Amino acid sequence: MTPVDRENPICPEFFPEFIIGIEPPVDRTEKALWFIFRGREVLLKLNKNPGAIPKMLDFGELGLPGTREQYLGTLEGTHCYSVELPEDAQAPEGMKFADLRQAYTEMSEKCFALVNKAVQIMEWDRTNQYCSRCGAKTAQKPGERGKECPDCGELFYPRISPAVIVLIRKGHEVLMARSPNFMPGLYGLIAGFVEPGESAEAAVVRETREEVGIEVKNINYFGTQAWPFPNSLMIGFTAEYDSGDIQPDGFEIEDAGWFSVENLPGLPGKISIARKLIDHFLKEEGLEV
Questions:
Q1: Which CATH number fits domain 18-127: 2.60.40.420, 3.40.630.20, 3.90.79.20, 3.40.50.720?
Q2: pLDDT for res 56
Q3: Distance (Å, rounded) from C-alpha 64 to C-alpha 80?
Q4: Which one of 26, 37, 49, 189 counts the least CB within 10 Å of its CB?
């Protein structure tokens, strides 16, 4: 097995400073980081460090009514918690609620990785309060990030949805595509969820064929990234063009084309795996990024 490179920039969310934890400390005697959510909005401090997560002994200091709480672990020895607030909760003075897509542009990669983890755990907690088999109220399974039905024994773990994303090369050009939901001028890469019983590599071939009508070859693994839109594990690949003409499907993709380094369109944010794939392509073309 190839050893994991902890400095690998492809997977910034994997860093040794954070240690996953299930059971919270018995006593709260030191300030902790509090990842506080109103739906899919995270509470951030408005200070000289944009995107800062509140740090305090107990989130109750903010005077906000939390509905549920989960312990995440420790970041460089600092305990981390996630808390869910009612939808009508208001941000305290000096703070704001930021949509996750906004937050991702304001935070460091490591901080957003923890926000990503926190919001997915909170949503798992909220959506698994009752057993989907028999309707009984579930309970936290000791020592695990799981819930257990006390009546029928059904177990519920956080849902993770695997998805593929691929950078496709054709000589010195890269295929970039635009979704109707993108901001004006923004282009990305071909991506989509893996179907049941399908390998990630097969999903690359199918998604490419479905979205832009071409065939690819020489598919190679690049890296992964957890992504909270909604609860994805993005599996990145590179591939080469094989055959066919670009034909956007008109639903997932409204426009697509081949781009050289001289005429790239608007690019995804720096901390996304899409951008890391693109930057990898640019480096191979001799550019510094």
A1: 3.90.79.20
A2: 93
A3: 18
A4: 26
